[in-house]
Amino acid sequence: MRIPIDNAAAIGKIVRASRKAQKIRQDDAAGSIGVSENFLGKIERGSESVQWGKLFQVLEGLGVQVIVDVPENVAAYLNESASNKDKP
Amino acid sequence: MRIPIDNAAAIGKIVRASRKAQKIRQDDAAGSIGVSENFLGKIERGSESVQWGKLFQVLEGLGVQVIVDVPENVAAYLNESASNKDKP
DNA sequence: AATAAATCCTCGCGTTTATGAGGATTTTGC
DNA sequence: GCAAAATCCTCATAAACGCGAGGATTTATT
Fold first, then answer.
1. Residue A83: what pLDDT?
2. CB nearest to A1's CB, from B4, B51, B72
3. What is the DSSP string of A7-75?
4. I want to staple B59 with a disulfide (CB 3.0 to 4.6 A). Which of A50, B9, B52, B64 is the partner?
């Protein structure tokens, strides 16, 4: 099930729902993922000032896959300088 | 074009490619988005310690849509306590 | 090759984070 | 409605951030 993230805080609801779907407490989830309970709570409440790396770690730990949608022409600029033969 | 993010640092390549596809310099992109050039560079280089809110702001500014993929059963736990009639 | 442009990196500074522990407050189960 | 559990919030501290400015290094242009 794919869900678009419209604002930074929206990721919190995803995290909470994912955790609850697995029937585990904040406390335990935080512990097994390797962050503090306080921090996980902050994420779930929609704090935007959390570190990306740690947030990603939580998403991974809860089985949430992150996907980005970019314009087609961006593809030509990925693989930085790996024989960029299609750049206009 | 949808691209899965496998590790926190991978978002950097997306940001850089998106910026280059628009042919704007770090300097200008950073300015118009409202962050420092230094910070945008950090993101593009894959720093994981940047704040989620600011990273999201940059993604938005560059037209990168963020999507998450969660297990189906998570849906029942979104809309926190809005008549959750389908929770097992 | 040489110059100019763009990106990267370091430094110091003020501010903010993440954590742990403790106690409120809310939610859940009986 | 009560008691227990879960979540939230506050506080203090060490650590790390984000910014600005300056100079290196890389990449582009002629």
1. 47
2. B72
3. STTHHHHHHHHHHHHTT--HHHHHHHHTS-HHHHHHHHTT-S-SBHHHHHHHHHHTTPEEEEE--GGGG
4. B64
